[in-house]
Specification:
Layout (H helix, E strand, L loop, with lengths): L1 E6 L4 H14 L4 E5 L6 E5 L6 H10 L4 E3 L2
Antiparallel strand pairs: 1-3, 1-4, 2-3
Length: 70
């Protein structure tokens, strides 16, 4: 699974917390948030067959907006 999402993550602390939570909860090869991009792009690469909805729900439960970046 490779997912690219738009978020409202704005600080380094928020980014670090979200990335840690994703690594702790899912099996992922790579995860990043581009704070310089206007869409605060979250990228996830995982060998698991995760759905975009699972990631969106997870990040939303962490308190952030998250949707698929077209």
């Amino acid at each position: 699974m490779m997912g690219i999402f738009r978020t409202n993550i704005t600080t380094v602390q928020e980014r670090n917390n979200v990335i840690k939570a994703i690594f702790d909860h899912f099996k992922v090869n790579a995860c990043s948030v581009d704070l310089e991009d206007c869409d605060k792009v979250l990228r996830i690469v995982s060998p698991q067959s995760l759905t975009e909805e699972v990631i969106i729900d997870f990040v939303t439960r962490l308190g952030f907006h998250c949707d698929i970046l077209d």
